[in-house]
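Severity: low
Component: inverse-folding endpoint
Summary: output formatting inconsistent between runs
Steps to reproduce: submit the following structure tokens with default settings.
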């Protein structure tokens, strides 16, 4: 962009940020290392070198007045459960992994905690289908089938199941819908209709 950029230390970068961003004006490496704030940090906005920081952003009222609420109309999922695929499957992340595990699955400790695919199934649904905790199950949608391990619990509601999308040994995204949002064209990866069967 044409701006000359000398080599700067992280402290110098922070000083530059503070010089052009009023909400960071009171934050510097020197101040963070000082006895005054060492160990507790400074919460922005911190607008001056003697400002104590802002531990709570809005006290008593919103900074913009009464606040602003823009309600939106609920739009149901493009694929709902039916007789052939009676359960709603949602996908998401576990605490210990990121996206497709490209980096996190190389960490032995994380894999010891959560290293394989699973599907959370409500206790009532598991009993109805004949599944016990730890059983291998087949999960099918209109796009295909995968096998994974059942995790039977009360974490999901009856008629709903949940599966992390990180793991290659489960392949949750093979099941999800490719229907697109009408405005953003984002695929509806987070919910689809499935059926679950015991592989025994």
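Observed output (run 2 of 3):
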């Amino acid at each position: 962009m044409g701006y000359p950029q000398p080599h700067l230390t992280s402290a110098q970068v922070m000083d530059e940020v503070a010089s052009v961003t009023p909400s960071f004006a009171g934050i510097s490496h020197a101040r963070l290392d000082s006895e005054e704030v060492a160990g507790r940090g400074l919460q922005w906005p911190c607008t001056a070198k003697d400002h104590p920081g802002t531990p709570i952003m809005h006290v008593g009222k919103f900074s913009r007045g009464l606040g602003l609420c823009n309600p939106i109309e609920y739009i149901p999922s493009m694929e709902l459960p039916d007789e052939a695929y009676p359960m709603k499957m949602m996908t998401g992340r576990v605490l210990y992994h990121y996206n497709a595990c490209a980096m996190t699955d190389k960490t032995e400790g994380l894999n010891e905690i959560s290293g394989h695919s699973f599907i959370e199934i409500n206790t009532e649904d598991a009993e109805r289908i004949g599944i016990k905790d730890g059983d291998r199950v087949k999960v099918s949608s209109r796009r295909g089938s995968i096998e994974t391990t059942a995790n039977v619990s009360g974490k999901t509601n009856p008629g709903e199941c949940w599966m992390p999308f990180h793991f290659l040994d489960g392949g949750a995204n093979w099941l999800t819908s490719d229907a697109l949002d009408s405005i953003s064209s984002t695929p509806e990866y987070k919910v689809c209709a499935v059926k679950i069967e015991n592989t025994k």
